[in-house]
TrEMBL record:
Residues 21-84 form the SH3b domain. The chain crosses the membrane at residues 109-130, 137-157. Keywords: Membrane, Signal, Transmembrane, Transmembrane helix. Pfam families: SH3_3. The keyword Signal applies. PROSITE patterns: SH3B. This is SH3 domain-containing protein. Residues 1-20 form the signal peptide.
Length: 238
C-alpha cells in the first residue's frame, strides 16, 4: 500500500453505542481509509492488519463506509473479512426497590408533651407564688394534676367499648353488640337480620362497615353512643 504523508489514524471501535453493525477484520498489511468511495479520493488514514472494524454502510459492495477517529471514511471491501454482527448495547434496567413506609401519627404524643410542659410550668408557679397560701396552693395543684390526668386518658389511653347498645328510635340499625375488641354484631331493622363486622376506634369515633356503607358512632360516654350520618340515633347500653 502507498505510504501517505499524514499521521496514521487508529480506528476506534464505537459500535457498542450504535445500532447493530457488521464486524470485519482487516486482511491487508495497511488498509487505506479514503475520504470518499472514489478509489482516487484523499487518504485520511489506515487500519493495521488483523484489526477489527465496524462497517457503517455496506450498500456499495466495493467500498464500505467505516468509522475512524477523525470522522468516517471508506475502505476497499476486498481487504475485509466478515466476522459477525455487532449487537446493539444492552443497557441493564435496574428495577426500583420501593420501600414501603408506614406512616405513624405522633400528633397525640406531641400534643400531650406540650400539655405536660405547660402543666409543669403551672405547678412551678403555684408552688413559688402560693407558698404562703397553703389551701389555695393545694387546690390549684389538684386542678392542674386533674387536667393532666384527663388529657392523658383522653389522648393516650386507647378507648375500649363492650356490651350491647340499643336505640329506641326508628333507625336502620337497632343495636350494636360489641362482643370483642374488634368485632361487633349489628342488627339491621330494614332487612331484619344480624351480621358481624369488624370495627376500629379512632379518638372517640367507632368506625365499622356494612358492604359499601360506612357506619360511624361517636362515644359520648361508656353508656351512650351517638350515630352519625344515615345511622343518626342515640344508642344506650343495656
Amino acid at each position: 500500500m502507498t505510504k501517505n504523508f499524514f499521521l496514521p489514524i487508529v480506528l476506534l471501535f464505537i459500535s457498542l453505542s450504535l445500532s447493530a453493525q457488521d464486524m470485519y477484520k482487516v486482511k491487508a498489511d495497511k488498509l487505506n481509509v479514503r475520504e470518499t468511495s472514489d478509489p482516487k479520493s484523499k487518504i485520511i488514514g489506515f487500519i493495521p492488519q488483523n484489526e477489527n472494524v465496524a462497517v457503517l454502510d455496506s450498500s456499495n459492495t466495493k467500498y464500505f463506509k467505516v468509522k475512524v477517529t477523525n470522522g468516517e471514511g471508506y475502505v476497499s471491501s476486498e481487504y475485509l473479512t466478515k466476522i459477525a454482527a455487532v449487537p446493539a448495547k444492552q443497557v441493564p434496567v435496574t428495577k426500583p426497590i420501593v420501600e414501603q413506609k408506614t406512616s405513624k401519627d405522633n400528633s397525640n404524643i406531641i400534643f400531650l408533651s406540650l400539655i405536660t410542659a405547660v402543666l409543669l410550668i403551672m405547678l412551678f408557679l403555684i408552688f413559688k407564688f402560693l407558698m404562703n397560701n397553703k389551701p389555695l396552693m393545694v387546690i390549684s395543684a389538684i386542678i392542674v394534676i386533674a387536667i393532666g390526668y384527663f388529657c392523658y386518658v383522653g389522648f393516650m389511653v386507647k378507648k375500649t367499648i363492650s356490651g350491647k347498645f340499643t336505640s329506641a328510635s326508628d333507625s336502620q340499625y337497632l343495636s350494636f353488640d360489641f362482643k370483642s375488641k374488634d368485632s361487633v354484631i349489628i342488627q339491621d331493622t330494614y332487612v331484619d337480620t344480624l351480621f358481624t363486622a369488624p370495627y376500629v376506634i379512632e379518638d372517640n369515633m367507632i368506625k365499622t362497615k356494612q358492604q359499601e356503607n360506612i357506619i360511624l358512632l361517636m362515644i359520648l360516654d361508656e353508656h351512650t353512643l351517638i350515630g352519625e350520618g344515615f345511622t343518626k340515633a342515640v344508642y344506650h347500653k343495656k
